[in-house]
Amino acid sequence: MIQIGRTHSLEVTKITDFGVFLDAGEYGSALLPNRFCPEDVAVGDRVDAFIYFDSDNEIVATTEKPIAEVGEWGLMKIEGVNSTGAFASWGIKSKDLLIPFSEQRTRFREGQSVLVYVYTDKASGRIVGTTKFNKLLNKTPASYKRNEQVDLIIAERSDLGFKAIVNGQHWGMLFPSDVIGKIFVGKKLKGFIKNIREDGKIDLALQKVGVAKMDDLSEKIIAQLEKREGFLPLSDKSSPDAIFDVFRTSKGTFKKSIGGLYKQGLIRIEKDGIYLVKED
Fold first, then answer.
1. 133-136: long-range contacts, CB 8 A cutoff, minimum separation 24
2. I want to staple 273 with a disulfide (CB 3.0 to 4.6 A). Which of 124, 176, 195, 233 is the partner?
3. Does domain 211-276 correspond to CATH entry 1.10.10.10?
């Protein structure tokens, strides 16, 4: 089934001087202009194309990749504002994404970058954006477990830390003490469930919590040492950023892990880094 606002693999049905027509199922044919056509395309070939309605309400296709398709979030720049709403650049050069005033939590200004959810308006059939995420999230009770890995999108910064969208379904909070590396609105990353409170609110972390976290990191350190011929140029003297770039964890956690591996006789800690202790 063809969905407007999504990328599909579509069959070429006709070739003209100005482009090719693709079979868009129940929507008929969609024009893919010449500037987007693959070289030597022929009738019967399949092309991965994004389908949308142009300003004349005609169905068209492009091989451009939008920042976010229908049903997805993306960080977009506001290109302009008029009496209808704000228009955001979403990766389709010929058409900006409308964010109606009714779908804005606050009024936007030109040049501002905002996190937007893309959806199809049922009344008009148009692809539009919204920043009113509360109507999309926390519709079902959270059933996550402690240390469960989840997909996160950083949605906004608050006095408490960073609010994040968890698996596209729930709100979660990442407190400053659990932030590792550079965090900014719109960033997509993996995280872990730290705690689910009695009121259902979710606390997040960017690394596993407690013993499970330490065991997991120790295994990763040994795996990296084996992969890199028994040496890593990291130690308890390395910078937090250097450690995070390799293991996505804090310096404190890394120091505890290599300390435990050292006590077990599995590694040596030298000035230039850590070495895997090889069996005789």
1. 133/165, 133/171
2. 233
3. yes
